[in-house]
Write a structure and sequence with these properties.
359 residues; alpha/beta; Rossmann fold; six-stranded parallel β-sheet; 15 helices; 15% strand
């Protein structure tokens, strides 16, 4: 029976390790997973979906590429096209599954249309997956969901076997021109306004220590170009901050992670985060707000968690890390043991259970 189940992912983000590992492990347990070609449109997906006649499952991930544009009129056209195609697929019997990665687009573009598409997907969906109980509760509260029997929790899988992890602390530090005696805070990943990097810089500069280092590494999208200028302006007089803008090659992830003592997530708004699971997979202590899945996946044994409503929360957490250098290593080991439990084989089996509940 399993070999006959066909699932199509939309959108298919080329090279995304979350989707790559989920697809690979679904196939290992017998599913046929058709993947959208990188050049295929997220807006007009109907021909791609029915290319091999009717799949069993259309598995939606991020809704924004199909619904939202920076242009309001184009967003309207995309949203209408998206909803019409979903309606047709429902009519012909394709089951819809949605994994909730966020509740709205991070740029807050055309929120009326974004919410309309989200509410319609919630209504049409045969199953809705969140990565944790907290995210599910937030989804229910935000969209007043009454039919909770189609809601499922399937955790985010780890990255333990995905990225190379063999460089030593000494070699990684040397590559980044960092002293091994310094306490190193790391922010790694796509730099967006909601992730609070300027606030992180200000907080770091408020720490009362010279033997510390902040490394900020990641790409800044063209629409956030002014963020690059703001960050460079804030760090111009501080030699303790390394800012490395640009795409981080997968093989370089280990360099940043193994040079760091603690990974910081100063997010102002977050539902779920693969970056936290990445840090845990590398055995790193974390600093994060107690919000969404971050406060559920991380615990006090592996993280310095703070309340977003507390304006001193981030600096207190960073000071705690500074005051407990020996504990940081144990916290990282604890996180790596936790991450190991989130195996992709298990995630794929839980996802299959969701599919079977629809069929």
């Amino acid at each position: 029976m399993m070999a006959q189940i066909t699932s199509i992912f939309l959108p298919r983000v080329d090279g995304n390790p979350y989707q790559e590992q989920l697809i690979d492990n679904l196939r290992k347990i017998g599913l046929k997973v058709e993947i959208q070609q990188p050049f295929a449109s997220s807006t007009f997906f109907f021909p791609m979906v029915i290319k091999h006649w009717k799949p069993d499952i259309l598995h939606l991930h991020w809704l924004e590429p199909s619904c939202i544009s920076t242009n309001g009129f184009l967003s309207l056209l995309k949203s209408v096209a998206f909803l019409i195609q979903l309606a047709i697929l429902k009519i012909i019997g394709v089951k819809l599954v949605w994994t909730v990665h966020n509740l709205k687009n991070h740029d807050n573009l055309n929120l009326f249309l974004n919410n309309l598409c989200t509410k319609t997907v919630i209504k049409f969906a045969d199953a809705i997956i969140t990565h944790c109980e907290a995210a599910q509760e937030e989804l229910i509260k935000t969209f007043a969901i009454k039919h909770k029997n189609k809601l499922f929790v399937v955790p985010h899988g780890n990255y333990v076997e995905w990225y190379e992890n063999k460089i030593s602390r000494e070699a990684a530090s040397a590559e980044l021109n960092i002293k091994t005696s310094e306490t190193v805070y790391l922010f790694l990943g796509l730099i967006r306004p909601y992730k609070g990097v300027p606030e992180l810089i200000e907080t770091f500069q408020g720490l009362n220590s010279e033997n510390i280092r902040l490394v900020i590494a990641g790409k800044i999208n063209s629409q956030d170009a002014d963020l690059t200028e703001l960050i460079q302006q804030k760090i111009s007089d501080d030699q303790r901050i390394n800012f490395i803008p640009g795409y981080i090659e997968p093989e370089k992830i280990q360099v940043y992670m193994n040079a760091a003592d603690v990974v910081v997530f100063p997010y102002r708004d977050i539902l779920t985060s693969g970056a936290v699971m990445l840090a845990m997979s590398f055995g790193k202590a974390c600093i994060a707000p107690r919000k969404g899945c971050l406060g559920e996946v991380l615990d006090n044994q592996g993280a310095f968690l703070y309340n977003l409503a507390d304006e001193n929360g981030l600096i207190q957490a960073m000071n705690q890390a500074l005051d407990n250098p020996k504990a940081i290593l144990e916290m990282g080991q604890h996180n790596q043991q936790l991450a190991a439990k989130y195996s992709w084989k298990n995630i794929a089996e839980l996802t299959l259970d969701v599919y079977l509940s629809c069929l």
